[in-house]
Amino acid sequence: MSYCRAYPEELGLDVYVLRLGHRPGRDKRITTHVVLVARAFGARGIYIANVVDESIKKSIEKVVQRWGGKYFTLVMGVDPMKIVKEFKKDGGCVVHLTMYGLPVDDVINSIRERCRKILVIVGAEKVERIYYELADYNISIGNQPHSEVSALALFLDRLWNGVELKMCFKDAKYYIVPSVRGKVVKMVDRGSSA
Ligand code: SAM
């Protein structure tokens, strides 16, 4: 598919996201956006700590069905500490996004060089102290409070140097032809080499 300039599997690093503190009802929209950013910006999957919220699953399934990314895993109701410990045991780096951490631009090169796979932790409200301690990197995306959605998007963009914005999915049914005005959506023709 020549309209694609990158595929998730070509990004070269396996990234997973761990979403802490989701409150069903209240955080439904924002957690859905965290999941959408994770998929669209090149993560392999996301874990939602402690709770199961079927509405999030439905939203992401709809997107994957049209735009691809069946490999993307959404696992809900996980024990977050177990995920962090397993990840570290397996040689992965744990990155916690927090306004109190080190500036992303100061550490991103070392992360790229050092880490074979990454677990990115984002919170909702207050994140427990233990995560600051277990994280290999506590990273800020600026030192102002904003949002887990923007923090995750900017971290992944810095990690991939913007390549993820040209990414598409091999199993997509549709793709977009960028246009000055209007919406141009085409169906993927798997019978041709285009
Ligand atoms: N005061 C909170 C804190 O401890 O970072 C802000 C909570 S904020 C509503 C929810 C999540 O967004 C945080 O847990 C963090 O993952 C992310 N976040 C917000 N601002 C950030 C920043 N400037 N840098 C990195 N992550 C940020």
Level-1 CATH class name = Alpha Beta
Query: If you average the pLDDT, what whole number results?
Result: 93
CATH topology: Alpha/beta knot
| Helical content class | 25-40%
Number of strands: 8
Judging by the overall fold, what is the CATH architecture? 3-Layer(aba) Sandwich
From N to C, what is the helix and strand string?
Answer: EHEHEHEHEHEHEE
Description:
The protein is α/β, with parallel strands linked by helices and 194 residues long. It has helices spanning 28-40, 54-67, 80-89, 104-114, 129-134, 148-160; strands spanning 14-19, 45-49, 73-78, 93-103, 117-122, 137-140, 174-176, 185-187. The chain has a single domain (12-166), classed as 3-Layer(aba) Sandwich (Alpha/beta knot). The chain contains six helices and eight strands; from the N terminus they run βαβαβαβαβαβαββ. Strand 1, helix 1 (28-40) and strand 2 (45-49) form a beta-alpha-beta unit. Helix 1 packs parallel to helix 6. The model has no long low-confidence stretch (mean pLDDT 93). It binds S-adenosylmethionine. The site of S-adenosylmethionine (SAM) has 16 residues, from strand 4 and helix 6. Residues 97-99, 122-124, 127, 140-142, 144-148, 151 line the site of S-adenosylmethionine.
Comma- or semicolon-separated keywords:
two-stranded antiparallel sheet, 6 helices, binds S-adenosylmethionine, alpha/beta, 194 residues, globular
